[in-house]
Inverse folding.
């Protein structure tokens, strides 16, 4: 009985010592490991908000981990947009943002896009989002063209929130 | 008999001290090896890589000093059995892992059978050390 008690007590002390030594040394050493490792992902996100590569955007799209923001005009959005994207023209940002605010925290990335290598709209919307405290905002440069060139999923139709000033998330005639 | 017990204890102590050395120096490499085993969930990989080498070091020191032998030899045997079982499981799964037993170099396998044999011997050594240093000593103590 005494042996069992000794075994249990000593084992507990030894394990506690090992945990304290391990964690303590890990804390002070320069090559210490993070105790909780971030989940590995094939997606490479820029360390600071910036441009995201099409491959990474596609992975996030396929796993439904990104919210795509179409920064073009409502009419262009109606003519075709990335599947599931939300229309947020720069001029309507202040009106639309409150309706979307609760969706930003539910995704790993917010990806803005417009059309053209020098299109400033996606960058403008990204800047506005970042200024409102939205994290992980990235720009898919020349997004609409690049997405189409790769024949990735798109849809047509228009959200009323970007049409005629009506603010509603209802989607009219959304079809592939 | 005392000499045999002491020799076994020192041998197992040496194995554990030697095993801890490289892992303490290279925790990231050791974490990668643990991950290769595909047994622990990801969230436990780094904590295991941080704590396990220190557990081995402390156990080695305690065995060498002849202190807290009941607890130390219980943990030594538990660890050796776990390590050996992990190797057996991966051998059956066909996963060729770097052993990570004494070195954090991720050498590709081909030596799985050798690892299994060697670690099996360690398990027997651990059990023998426990028998001679704890069980036998208790029996002798009761008789006297």
């Amino acid at each position: 009985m005494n042996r069992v008690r000794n075994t249990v007590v000593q084992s507990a002390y030894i394990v506690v010592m090992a945990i304290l030594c391990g964690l303590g040394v890990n804390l002070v050493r320069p090559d210490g490991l993070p105790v909780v490792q971030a989940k590995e992902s094939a997606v490479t996100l820029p360390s600071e908000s910036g441009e995201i590569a099409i491959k990474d955007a596609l992975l996030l799209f396929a796993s439904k981990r990104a919210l795509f923001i179409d920064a073009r005009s409502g009419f262009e959005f109606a003519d075709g947009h990335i599947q599931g994207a939300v229309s947020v023209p720069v001029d309507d940002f202040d009106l639309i943002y409150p309706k979307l605010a609760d969706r930003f925290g539910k995704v790993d990335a917010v990806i803005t896009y417009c059309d053209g290598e020098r299109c400033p709209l996606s960058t403008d919307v990204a800047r506005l989002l970042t200024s409102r405290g939205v994290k992980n905002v990235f720009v898919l440069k020349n997004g609409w063209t690049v997405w189409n060139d790769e024949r990735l999923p798109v849809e047509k139709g228009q959200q009323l929130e970007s049409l005629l000033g009506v603010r509603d998330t209802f989607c009219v005639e959304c079809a592939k | 008999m005392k000499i045999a017990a002491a020799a076994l204890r020192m041998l197992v102590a040496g194995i554990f001290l030697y095993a801890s050395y490289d892992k303490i120096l290279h925790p990231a490499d050791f974490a990668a090896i643990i991950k290769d085993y595909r047994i622990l969930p990801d969230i436990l990989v780094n904590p295991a890589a941080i704590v396990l080498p220190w557990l081995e070091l402390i156990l080695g020191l305690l065995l060498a000093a002849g202190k807290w032998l009941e607890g130390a030899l219980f943990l030594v045997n538990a660890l050796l059995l776990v390590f050996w079982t992990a190797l057996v499981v991966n051998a059956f799964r066909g996963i060729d892992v770097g052993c990570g037993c004494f070195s954090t170099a991720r050498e590709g396998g081909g030596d799985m059978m050798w690892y299994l044999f060697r670690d099996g011997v360690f398990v027997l050594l651990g059990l023998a050390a426990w028998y001679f240093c704890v069980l036998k000593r208790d029996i002798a103590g009761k008789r006297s």
